[in-house]
Amino acid sequence: MAGQAVDIATLKDTLVVLGTAGVVVPLMHRLKVGPVLGFLMAGVLLGPFGLGRLDATVPGIHWVTIQNREEIAGIADFGVVFLLFVIGLELSIARLVSMRRLVFGLGSLQVILSGALIGAVALQMGLKPAAALVLGASLALSSTAVVVEVLAEQKRLTSTTGRTAFSILLLQDLAVVPILFMVETLGGGGGLGRSVWIDLGYSLLQGLVAVAVIVVIGRTLLKPLFRVVAETRSAELFMATILFVAIGTGVVTALAGISMALGAFVSGLLLAETEYRRAIEATIEPFKGLLLGVFFFSVGMSIDLDHVVAHPVAILAGAFALVA
User: Fold this and answer.
1) Long-range CB contact pairs, 189-192, < 8 A, 24+
2) How many whole angstroms separate alpha carbon 228 and alpha carbon 68?
3) What are the backbone dihedrals phi and psi of residue 297, each rounded to the nearest 5 degrees, phi first?
4) Which phi-psi region, left, alpha or beta, contains residue 126 (left: φ > 0; alpha: ψ -120 to 50)?
5) Do residues 253 and 207 touch, judged by C-beta distance below 8 A?
6) Looking at CB atoms within 10 Å, which of 6, 115, 136, 205 has the fewest?
7) Which of 152, 179, 178 is nearest to 165 (CA)?
8) pLDDT at site 3
9) pLDDT tens-digit map of 170-219
10) CA dist., res. 309 & res. 50, Å (int)
11) CA distance 308 to 317
């Protein structure tokens, strides 16, 4: 409307991301390379540590760059939420129960052994025990978005390797709660005393209660809700209901101290048991792909090329050691 204030900066950043998606996806497809790498490289190039640093010296460069990662971070996080929602749709509660040994057995083993090994190396490098513990626990985790997207591109998500990898990733998502609690406690100078373990147990219980509430309400209401929505034959209402369920369950788990992505995953599991599974998956797929691209773009924006150039040997050695 005439006279209405328009946030040009936000619109410009949105256009940059959309334009990047329009270039990256077909280009990476032609090169037979996954779009994940393309979005990461685009984020590096167009971010504050790439062309964005020329804003003060090159007139007009700000129109094709994004100087502040926080401006798109909120949108980017929804990419991971919808990714886990779609993964939940492709699984089911029965299949997840059959994977429980992989999730809690192999997953726990991976986090504990990797964290202990990395923490031991950090101790040998001179870090204090508290810092080594936090570093080991943090670096024991992987990026669910990156790993799952790569497996999906290679059509290996339903293979033995894919199911095993996803089981470990799921346990890692659950491990975020105690790790964040540990970081907050040790960062404040406190030790891991009895009261801390009680508070940690309470936090975990709160998260489990939130998931249980989602499961109970979801099994009771989701199927009737989507039946009513489907009877209206309104594509817009069907899409709005999907978005409401995915984001709403994510908000519930976020309020309980767990990631939004885990809540969306649980709702996806519940909807996988309904007859609307394929329709929901087809409807949400474009949103997931675009928002996930924004997520990888935002990750690329945080890569400081100056730091990489200044410490190439240390970074490459650290990356190699971490993967090994």
Assistant:
1) none
2) 43
3) -60, -45
4) left
5) yes
6) 6
7) 152
8) 47
9) 888 777 767 766 776 665 555 555 666 676 677 677 777 877 888 888 88
10) 13
11) 12
| C-beta of residue 178 within 8 angstroms of C-beta of residue 134 | no
- Of 277, 281, 229, 271, give the one whose Cα is nearest residue 248: 271
Tell me the H-state helices in 91-193.
93-98, 100, 107-124, 129-139, 144-153, 160-187
CA 316 to mean position of chain CA atoms:
24
* Helix pair angle (129-139, 160-187), 10° resolution: 150
Gap between the Cα atoms of 65 and 82, Å rounded: 26
Distance from the Cα of residue 283 to its chain's centroid: 20
Q: Which residues contact 206 (CB under 8 A, 6 or more apart)?
A: 256, 257
Q: Tell me: the pLDDT tens digits for 148-166?
A: 878 887 888 878 888 899 8
| Cα(242)–Cα(288) distance, integer angstroms | 12
Cα separation of 90 and 268, whole Å?
8
Report the pLDDT value the prediction gives residue 199, as an integer from 0 to 100.
Answer: 67
CA atoms within 13 A on the CB side of 74: 4
State both tokens at 107.
């997953």
Is the pTM above the cut of 0.70? yes
- Token pair of 145, please? 């978005």
| Whole-number Å distance between alpha carbons of 243 and 235 | 12
Tell the residue number behind the tokens 């993967």, with chain if given: 323
Phi and psi for 88 in degrees, rounded to 5?
-60, -40
- Is 85's pLDDT higher than 50? yes
Q: At what angle do helices 8-30 and 35-46 cross, to 10 degrees?
A: 140
CA geometry: angle at 131 spanning 309 and 68, to 5°? 45
Q: b/e string for 57-86 if b means 16 or more Cβ within 10 A?
A: eeeebbeebbbebebbeebbbbbbbbbbbb
Tokens 């709403």 -> residue: 248
**1 compared with 274, residue with greater pLDDT:** 274
Q: What is the DSSP letter of 274?
A: S
